[in-house]
Description:
33% helix, NADP binding, FAD/NAD(P)-binding domain, FAD, monooxygenase, five-stranded parallel sheet, 555 residues
Amino acid sequence: MSSQKRVIIIGSGVSGMAMAVQLQRLLGHQNFTIFEKADNIGGTWWHNRYPACACDIPSHFYSYSFALKPDWSTTYPGRDELHDYFLSVAEKYDLVRRCKFNEMCLKAEWDDARSMWSVTFQNTLTGKVSVHEAAVVVSAVGTLDRPAIPAIPGRENFKGVAFHSARWNPSVQMKGKRVVVLGNGASATQFVPKLVEQVGSQGQVTQLVKSAHWWTKRGNPKYPESFKWTMAYVPFAARIYRIFLAWELESFFYSFLMTPSGAAMREKIRNDTYKFIETEAPKEYQEILKPDYEPGCKRRVNTLDYLRTLHSPNMLLAKDRPARITATEVITESGEIYPADVLIYATGFLTQRWLFPIEVKGREGKDLSKIWDKAGGAEAYKGTVVADFPNFFVLYGPNAATGQHSVIFHSECQINYSCRLLRPILREGVDSIAVKPQAQKRDLEWVHGRLGGLVFNSGCQSWWMDPITKKNTFIYPDPMFKYWLRTIFPVWTDFDLIKASRKVNRSHPVEVMVTLLLAAAGLWSLYATNLLGPTRTHIFDQAAILVQPLTSKFA
């Protein structure tokens, strides 16, 4: 039996895999188990298999910093290429044999006396329940893998084929079918053009939408062989290209500011989108397609062919909501009746059901879901740890995400930060670590105070917002490079470290010195921003990203 303390990772998606890798790379820790409810790794990129499924972040930045891939085929890779990439990472770091598949997590309960988590799982095939213990639990369950299907009256009576886009049914032959699509988000925008081709001239695609999006015209150029060679063999070329991509993505953040400069950037986005719609879309649909909320309030949707597809004679777009469903029809609120052989829900995910269906109980039996309900939405210190829940880490956690950047970048920031917090637990004999309530409160006040000055809270209803409380539980209110800076070294005074029922003080003079230097760099960046304007200072900002691979040296 290993003498190392056990770590349980819940979920084998992008974040769960990276956590498993970094435990090995940064801490030399091998005693971990990944529990996955599906039958394969990959999370979002395993579940989503709809036609034309692809990423909307450039491939050379939508990849791990520790596993660069020089030979991506296109700028925006498709689902199959992405999943193959994650499989290759799993193989390289020997992750699959540490995975227990078809295991749904039901409960995690902390035992303060033993500094131990007891985690309950149920096998999704056999129903067998098992309990596992670990000193550390990492939740990597994500939020974009639990389909949201609206409770439309009569939907259980539908006699045709119905499924969510994230659970695509490849056995359905679409040719000649009457297909009704509910929703027009990023997924539907990708698969509808292919669907129109598949149903053919004898079929019909009807898309019911309730809101418009800020469409961005975006192609998907292939990388030439010369570029792939450069990425593979020219020293630092791949790293420099990643920095360029990060810089480009980061620049969008400044359009989120509710300032004159931010408003000017949004006005350009508005004009570009309206021009795109007026040039590409049928005239009868243009008003339906034009959003009436601020650019950036919802994540933008990229496309090249969706608007052109609306010209197809077998394609109908209607701004209407389904009121009820019969055995063969969808009846809308306006009274329109649409016959359907196939019903596809492109209705998003249960993004505000954080950690669902896991029941998490911390010190003194405190229930995390009840705490978050009382707070009006999920909360965590730096989006990663929660007061009164020792040795428990949430990846892709509350207010750690981005409206413009790569989810892998911010997940790596969280993971590297978590590994630094875990060093005392896994290598120095400390029993538990928990953020202090007052530190969490201070961090959250800063987060939500700053969100008030950003476009995300300007009035639209997005999946980033709790639908009842209107609390933004997703977005980090600063550029991502600043999140990286704030997660390089823990502020140890914000944490209680306990060893054999005795609190431990922990700080390191090298960490203090480096933190002071980073703070000075941050102040200079802020000064330069005020002096030169946001669009002139990205080079200062993004210089921080260049040294990201070096931060592991201080872990």
